Fold this protein.
Amino acid sequence: MKKGTLFIVSGPSGCGKGTILAEIMKNPGLYFSISATTRKKRSGEEDGVNYHFMTNDTFRELIQNDGILEYAEYCGNYYGTPKKPVEEHLNAGDDVILEIEIIGAIKVLTKCPDAVSIFLLPPSLSELEHRLRRRGTESESVLQERVAQAAKEIKQSNKYDYVVVNDTLSQAIADVKAILRAESCKTRKCQTIIEEVLKK
Ligand code: 5GP
């Protein structure tokens, strides 16, 4: 069976990752990895749906038991990708999406060089700050920390295979869908199809 492709999607907090990925996830054959985090649940978030929310101790245990593909600290909290579901879905032929920050992304790219990485950019830092303020999920100090973090992350976007600007939402969604589609047509992904065509 053809193995799925591992996609890494990163982008600064507030750049619209969640909205874009919610739309992308309507496509069949995709698995969205649910991360573990020590961050506090925001209102409206659900354990096991948005994240696996846990204490620092439980997070450490997960690392010690080799249950984590990658993890990183982001603005004072730990975030990590549970390994088992990712491996199971890739082996079942599903494409897997990891929505993770840049340190984790680089760790995954080192371990899984075939992973495809996409960086989502806001149209500007001032627009990002405006969007974060409109979202209203962070205190002013956390918001400022996240905007400062965004500038650092954007400087590293050249480490990714693709960059998509989320200026017009529909265009950004179309761009990410086009990348997923193009990757599924890569020659190395189509060896089985080529062999089947030759048999008929
Ligand atoms: P938030 O607190 O806004 O949900 O997420 C903060 C940052 O953590 C975002 O940049 C998000 O992409 C990143 N993140 C979420 N899950 C993971 C993960 O499993 N690993 C890593 N390295 N980063 C993550």
